[in-house]
Amino acid sequence: MGAYMLSNTDKNRTRVDIYGIPYTIVGTESSSHIRLVASMVDETMRDISAKNPSLDISKLAVLTAVNTMNDYLKLKDEVERLKEELNRVKD
């Protein structure tokens, strides 16, 4: 999602709601991709909030980011493991 830091050329502006708050996301990804990402963030925030109803939105956002980064690192490790396995099979 690093595309959000690019210049204004070739950018899509997509309005989304995350946890009841409207955002305009600007990026090179398609609007459908941006909406999918936003819906996944919204779903994760709502799941965490349901289990921890006393969290304020800042803590909820941080926990959502922590959970998302944890999932990302697990998937990244799995991809690396699979690449190594594929290289062994090819050799």
TrEMBL record:
SUPFAM superfamilies: Cell division protein ZapA-like (SSF102829). Its main location: cytoplasm. One of its GO terms (biological process) is cell division. It is found in: Cytoplasm. Pfam families: ZapA. It comes from the Bacteria. Keywords: Cell cycle, Cell division, Cytoplasm, Septation. NCBIfam families: PRK14126.1. Homodimer. Interacts with FtsZ. Activator of cell division through the inhibition of FtsZ GTPase activity, therefore promoting FtsZ assembly into bundles of protofilaments necessary for the formation of the division Z ring. It is recruited early at mid-cell but it is not essential for cell division. This is Cell division protein ZapA. It comes from Cytobacillus stercorigallinarum. The gene is zapA.
